[in-house]
Structures are given as structure tokens and as C-alpha cells.
């Protein structure tokens, strides 16, 4: 139990993590985080909507933008590796009354994000063209893909900061501030996109420029907050060092969210190449649209889970396993309800969602045909994310890592390679729902088997 001396410096937003009713607390933390994730989706979706509606060349430009998605996801994955790996550690240290150690975690993460941004920018700028061909580009769309990614990569450091450091704001219970961090950038992107794309006639280059400027605005806001007086954890010069022990701890937890996002990139590569080989540019275009909608479902679901993460981590660190268990139960109910509703909407009204991205009749018709298949199992994703974020919040890195690998590496990629050999191009679309349902059911079984052992260990520690 924390002493009065330890508790006194903590702000009300921290102490509420251990005292406020779970339902209201989850709502308070999850709603702004979900809004932030929905806004975050707009960064890529708004670009795709505007580009897909460019007169004459919109369909090809949209397809070209789609093959850059693996690079975008790899950058986001490294940001998650640091942010999602370090934020639960910081939450647990705050729960134990050790804010000074939590600040060291923040300082190490800030420097690590900076170094990773420099490396990623350099590597992708050098090898962008062969990588884009590897990711499914054809001669018809390589120009659009290269134009977009060449500019986007110049803002890698802003993307890393806005995604990686914002997790530390959420981890302190400042969910509304974290939401505003994303909102500022997204609104900037929405305003700048039509100016650069249409008014200045920059096309896909304009979309990329609008995105990196918007990410820069968001990154500056986040750093300014973490240097200010309102935050409980502050970026301090003396903590900007790569302490091996802290880097190792961050990596142990960060590898799971890293794999979740980086394997999304690998999945996209496998699907794009399969669709290009078995179908052509038109089929690659359908995936560009559907991955945009998939983000619209998955990121808010992850936002709900991230809202629960500080509650679970804080109470687990404080020795209150009962509140951590209750948080999981409520989290599972909310995430599963959300994914079921999203599944019904997309499967029942595919043309409505496809029309947002393209007026091209051929691309629209094909997307509406395959969308109900591709999204048939997304309802089960709410189960997997609730289990995985709970394991991550409890410091169970190995289990969380296995669950991260299960859906994509062990199931989806093999299915996407195998099924089209028997069922043609449609087999690629069917791989997604089969993997979703199988992985989610497995995740739930593992959690039910392991939960008593994990919580009992903490309660008796």
C-alpha cells in the first residue's frame, strides 16, 4: 500500500485510477482515446478520399497510394514499439509511487524515438523504389507511390513523436489532452489536403506534404505538453539517455505491439502481391479501400483498449487485482459490441462505404462485391484486442507476443498464400475472416486458462 508521502504528489487524475468506479473511469479514459484514434484514422483516410476523387487519374493514384501502406505501418510500428512498450511501464511505476523512475522511462523513450526516426528515414529513402515494387506496385502506379512516399518520409520524426510520445500522456490519465494532440494534427490535415492536392495542383505530393505538416504540428504540441508544468511526467535533459536496462524492459513489452503493426505491413505486402498476381491493379485498389475501412474499425477498438490500459496497469502495480479483473470484463464487453456493430454495417452496406473513396464504377462494383467477404470475421477482433491489451498491461510480454503473431503470421499469411491456389483471387479475401475468428477464439481460451495463475501470483507477491 502507498504511504501518504508517496500518494501526496500524485494528481487526482492518477489517484482516480485506483479509486473511481471502473465503468465511469473506463468511459472517461476510453472515449477521448477512441475519438483520438478515429481522428488519427483521418490522416490516411482523408488522403485516400481526396486522391481517389482526383478527376481522371483518381483510381490509379489511389491504388498507388495503397502500396505505400507497408512503409507507413512500419514507421507506426516502431513508434508503437517505444510508446506502447514504455507507457505501461511508466503507469506501473506511477502506481508504485515511483514517478522519478517513470520519468527516466520517458527520457529514454524520447531519445530512442529520435534515433529510430533517423534510421528509418535514411533506409526507406535509399531503397524506396525497389521496396514499392516488392510491395505490389506495377509500372502503372509506381510513379504515384514514389511521389507520395518521397515527401512523407521527410516527416518521419514527427510521426514517431506524435504516435510514440502521446502514449505517455494517455498513461498519466490525461486522455482528453491526448485526444487534442491528435485532433490538432488531423484538423490541419483536413484543411491542408484540398489546398495542396487541388488548389495548388500537387496531387499525391500535396497529400503527403499536408500529412507531414500536420504531424509536425501534433508533435510540437505533445513535446510542449511533456515539457510543461501540467504533466506528472516531464521530459528532462538528464534523462535523455539509452539506459540498457530500461531499453530492454521497453523492448520486452514493446515487441508485441510492434509485431501487431509491423505484421500488418507484412500482411498488406502479401495481399497486395497476391491480388496483383491473380487479379491486377483493380484488385489492389479494392484492398486500398478496405484497409482504410479496416483501420476505421481496428484503431478505435485499440483506442478503447488503450483507455483501459492505465487502469489495469496502475491497479496491478498497486496490488489491486480485483479492479484489474473488473476492468477486463468491461473492456471485453465494450470492444466486442463495437466490432459486432461495425461488422454488420460494412457487410450490409458495402457500396455506401466504397463510394466514399471512389466514383470509378469498375472499382466501386468490385469493392462492393468482395467487402462482405473480407469483413465477415471482423466482429471477433474485439475479443482478441481485449485479451492482448490485458496481457500487455499485466506485463505478460511472452503471451502478448504470441497473440500478436497468431492472427497474422501463423494464420492470415499462410492462408493468403494457400487459398488462392485452390480458389483463385477470391481465396485471398476469404483468408481474412478465417484468421480473425480462429485467432480471437484462441486468444480468449488462453486468457481464461492463464488469468487465475497471473492474478494469484500478483495477489500473493
Automatic annotation (TrEMBL):
<feature type="transmembrane region" description="Helical">
    <location>
        <begin position="206"/>
        <end position="227"/>
    </location>
</feature>
<feature type="transmembrane region" description="Helical">
    <location>
        <begin position="105"/>
        <end position="128"/>
    </location>
</feature>
<dbReference type="Pfam" id="PF01554">
    <property type="entry name" value="MatE"/>
</dbReference>
<feature type="transmembrane region" description="Helical">
    <location>
        <begin position="180"/>
        <end position="200"/>
    </location>
</feature>
<comment type="similarity">
    <text>Belongs to the multi antimicrobial extrusion (MATE) (TC 2.A.66.1) family. MepA subfamily.</text>
</comment>
<feature type="transmembrane region" description="Helical">
    <location>
        <begin position="373"/>
        <end position="394"/>
    </location>
</feature>
<dbReference type="GO" id="GO:0042910">
    <property type="term" value="F:xenobiotic transmembrane transporter activity"/>
</dbReference>
<feature type="transmembrane region" description="Helical">
    <location>
        <begin position="148"/>
        <end position="168"/>
    </location>
</feature>
<feature type="transmembrane region" description="Helical">
    <location>
        <begin position="280"/>
        <end position="299"/>
    </location>
</feature>
<dbReference type="GO" id="GO:0015297">
    <property type="term" value="F:antiporter activity"/>
</dbReference>
<keyword id="KW-0813">Transport</keyword>
<protein>
    <recommendedName>
        <fullName>Multidrug export protein MepA</fullName>
    </recommendedName>
</protein>
<keyword id="KW-0472">Membrane</keyword>
<dbReference type="GO" id="GO:0046677">
    <property type="term" value="P:response to antibiotic"/>
</dbReference>
<dbReference type="InterPro" id="IPR002528">
    <property type="entry name" value="MATE_fam"/>
</dbReference>
<feature type="transmembrane region" description="Helical">
    <location>
        <begin position="58"/>
        <end position="84"/>
    </location>
</feature>
<dbReference type="GO" id="GO:0005886">
    <property type="term" value="C:plasma membrane"/>
</dbReference>
<keyword id="KW-1133">Transmembrane helix</keyword>
<keyword id="KW-0812">Transmembrane</keyword>
<feature type="transmembrane region" description="Helical">
    <location>
        <begin position="331"/>
        <end position="353"/>
    </location>
</feature>
<keyword id="KW-1003">Cell membrane</keyword>
<dbReference type="InterPro" id="IPR051327">
    <property type="entry name" value="MATE_MepA_subfamily"/>
</dbReference>
<keyword id="KW-0046">Antibiotic resistance</keyword>
<dbReference type="InterPro" id="IPR045070">
    <property type="entry name" value="MATE_MepA-like"/>
</dbReference>
<feature type="transmembrane region" description="Helical">
    <location>
        <begin position="401"/>
        <end position="422"/>
    </location>
</feature>
<dbReference type="InterPro" id="IPR048279">
    <property type="entry name" value="MdtK-like"/>
</dbReference>
<feature type="transmembrane region" description="Helical">
    <location>
        <begin position="239"/>
        <end position="260"/>
    </location>
</feature>
<feature type="transmembrane region" description="Helical">
    <location>
        <begin position="428"/>
        <end position="449"/>
    </location>
</feature>
Amino acid at each position: 500500500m502507498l504511504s501518504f508521502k508517496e500518494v501526496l504528489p500524485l494528481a487526482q487524475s492518477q489517484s482516480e485510477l485506483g479509486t473511481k468506479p471502473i465503468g465511469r473511469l473506463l468511459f472517461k479514459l476510453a472515449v477521448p482515446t477512441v475519438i483520438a484514434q478515429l481522428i488519427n484514422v483521418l490522416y490516411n483516410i482523408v488522403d485516400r478520399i481526396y486522391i481517389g476523387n482526383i478527376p481522371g487519374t483518381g483510381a490509379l493514384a489511389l491504388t498507388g497510394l495503397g502500396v505505400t501502406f507497408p512503409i507507413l505501418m512500419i514507421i507506426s510500428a516502431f513508434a508503437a514499439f517505444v510508446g506502447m512498450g514504455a507507457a505501461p511501464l511508466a503507469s506501473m511505476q506511477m502506481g508504485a509511487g515511483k514517478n522519478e523512475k517513470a520519468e527516466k522511462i520517458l527520457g529514454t523513450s524520447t531519445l530512442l524515438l529520435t534515433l529510430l526516426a533517423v534510421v528509418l528515414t535514411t533506409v526507406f529513402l535509399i531503397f524506396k523504389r525497389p521496396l514499392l515494387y516488392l510491395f505490389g506496385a506495377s509500372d502503372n502506379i509506381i510513379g504515384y507511390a514514389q511521389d507520395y512516399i518521397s515527401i512523407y518520409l521527410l516527416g518521419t520524426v514527427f510521426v514517431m513523436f506524435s504516435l510514440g510520445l502521446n502514449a505517455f500522456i494517455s498513461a498519466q490519465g490525461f486522455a482528453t489532452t491526448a485526444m487534442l494532440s491528435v485532433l490538432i494534427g488531423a484538423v490541419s490535415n483536413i484543411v491542408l489536403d484540398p489546398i495542396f492536392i487541388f488548389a495548388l495542383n500537387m496531387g499525391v505530393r500535396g497529400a503527403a506534404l499536408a500529412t507531414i505538416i500536420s504531424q509536425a504540428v501534433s508533435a510540437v504540441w505533445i513535446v510542449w505538453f511533456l515539457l510543461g508544468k501540467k504533466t506528472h511526467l516531464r521530459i528532462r535533459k538528464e534523462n535523455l539517455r539509452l539506459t540498457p536496462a530500461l531499453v530492454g524492459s521497453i523492448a520486452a513489452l514493446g515487441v508485441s505491439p510492434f509485431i501487431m503493426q509491423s505484421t500488418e505491413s507484412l500482411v498488406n505486402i502479401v495481399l497486395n502481391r497476391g491480388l496483383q498476381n491473380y487479379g491486377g491493379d483493380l484488385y489492389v485498389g479494392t484492398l486500398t479501400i478496405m484497409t482504410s475501412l479496416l483501420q476505421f474499425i481496428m484503431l478505435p477498438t485499440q483506442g478503447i483498449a488503450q483507455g483501459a490500459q492505465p487502469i489495469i496497469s496502475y491497479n496491478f502495480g498497486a496490488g489491486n487485482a480485483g479492479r484489474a479483473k473488473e476492468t477486463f470484463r468491461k473492456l471485453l464487453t465494450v470492444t466486442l459490441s463495437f466490432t459486432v456493430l461495425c461488422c454488420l454495417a460494412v457487410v450490409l452496406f458495402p457500396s455506401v462505404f466504397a463510394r466514399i473513396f471512389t466514383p470509378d464504377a469498375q472499382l466501386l462494383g468490385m469493392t462492393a462485391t468482395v467487402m462482405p467477404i473480407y469483413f465477415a470475421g471482423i466482429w471477433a477482433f474485439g475479443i482478441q484486442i481485449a485479451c492482448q491489451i490485458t496481457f500487455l498491461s499485466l506485463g505478460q510480454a511472452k503471451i502478448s507476443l504470441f497473440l500478436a503473431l497468431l492472427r497474422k503470421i501463423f494464420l492470415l499469411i499462410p492462408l493468403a498464400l494457400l487459398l488462392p491456389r485452390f480458389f483463385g483471387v477470391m481465396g485471398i479475401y476469404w483468408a481474412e475472416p478465417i484468421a480473425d475468428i480462429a485467432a480471437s477464439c484462441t486468444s480468449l481460451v488462453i486468457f481464461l486458462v492463464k488469468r487465475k495463475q497471473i492474478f494469484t501470483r500478483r495477489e500473493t507477491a
